[in-house]
Amino acid sequence: MELEIYQTSGDEIQHFRVLFLQENNVQFVCNKCHQYGWADTCLFTVDGIRVGYGSVWGTDRREDRDTIFEFYIIPPFRGFANLLFPKFCLISEATFIESQSNDGLLSSILYEYTQTIHAEAILFDDHIITDLTVGGVIFRKRNTNDGMDDESPYVLELHNNIVVSGGLMLNYNMPFAAIYRQVNEPFRRRGLGSFMVQELKKEAYRMGRVPAARCSISNRISKATLVKAGLRVCGFRLKGTIVNP
């Protein structure tokens, strides 16, 4: 049996990426790494048959290639994972794995091949429809007269003041859209953040997108805001240091 791994282009493994995204059916945080050229990718073959791929990027600097963030083998050949992964580690010279806990294959590899595992972020998907209200608040698109420092396309207006801004990041795998928002300091802890998330969820669905979000593992306020708006924890962004591949 001959196992081969060699560097390839994103186009060569795109059909495998379609299968990877369909199998997991979640917002994949690192999807944009392929779109923006931040990753290098290797193709895996078994006796000349193309069976999957792996991708690396820089955990701290985009120009580095020290972190495996994607590893996929088609189901009929998945039994070769523990032969292909160590070989991929040696060829890529990666020292870390970053994985979403809702990526079944790579997260299992992470637990098997790394130490110092920790969660860096909490991942959310939509769960329930909420009907939050905040008296006097208007949700609308921003306009040129708002005088905002950021370029967020949506705002909450209260008594002629912009109190929250936010939007949807669309550079993830379809059909997902990532919600973001900023609440001005004097208006925090009034339920405005959750109301903004609720309204942005509606905008995502109107666009034909599925809302999603994430926050730092230590940001309990952000987590509570997202949960109040009907999202739920669906996974974690994990990282570990590779040992003895």
UniProtKB/TrEMBL annotation:
Residues 108-245 form the N-acetyltransferase domain. GO terms for molecular function: acyltransferase activity, transferring groups other than amino-acyl groups. InterPro entries: Acyl_CoA_acyltransferase, GNAT_dom. Signal peptide: none annotated. The keyword Electron transport does not apply. Keywords: Transferase. SUPFAM superfamilies: Acyl-CoA N-acyltransferases (Nat) (SSF55729). Coiled coil: none annotated. Transmembrane segments: none annotated. This is GNAT family N-acetyltransferase. It comes from Spirosoma aureum.
